[in-house]
Design brief:
alpha+beta
């Protein structure tokens, strides 16, 4: 619960999306006792690494996957959670990146980031050693993915537009929603 509270509090602050995503990956690592958290966002049918708790030089913004490519691309394409307890690197869907030390990690948990019903990215949690992901772990990462989706949606709005929005009008005028 504390993880979700901290992410929610960062959502309501005026901060740039990059800093907010870096905060999310750090918090996820802290609260899940994982060794790595990587966050990808979708751009032109490619997933782009946007945040990592231990980014290698030149990986942020440069590591890219097509939809369906690798474990992360599979999660985005299928819009499904993926949990691998051991030897994630042996899965036939796995794609190796020489720049990412996480490629040698054993356990892998991944959830889609969803914005208004569509996949906008993927968040991955990895452990160096084999690790069983509980139902609670899976639900937590799914919820974090949903929160990151809300962050992305908020970041797409200008602060001026948000300040001028009549919140009651949003409720009373359902035709304006997409």
């Amino acid at each position: 619960m504390r993880l979700l509270q901290k992410i929610s509090r960062s959502m309501v602050r005026l901060t740039n999306l990059s800093a907010a995503l870096e905060s999310v990956v750090s918090l996820v690592v802290e609260f899940t006792n994982s060794d790595a958290c990587l966050l990808y966002l979708l751009q032109d049918k490619e997933l782009v690494l946007c945040a990592s708790n231990n980014p290698a030089p030149d990986t942020i913004g440069n590591v890219r996957l097509k939809l369906g490519e690798g474990l992360t691309g599979w999660v985005a394409k299928e819009r499904r959670l993926l949990s691998l307890t051991r030897e994630a690197y042996s899965d036939p869907r796995f794609k190796v990146f020489s720049d990412l030390p996480e490629d040698t990690y054993e356990a892998f948990l991944s959830a889609p980031i969803v914005v208004r019903g569509r996949v906008a990215g993927v968040i991955n949690v990895q452990h160096r050693e084999p690790h069983f992901h509980t139902g609670g772990d899976m639900e937590l990462l799914t919820t974090v993915g949903e929160q990151v989706g809300c962050m992305v949606a908020l970041a797409a709005q200008s602060p001026d537009a948000l300040a001028k929005t009549d919140v009651l009008d949003l409720v009373l005028t359902p035709a304006r929603r997409d």
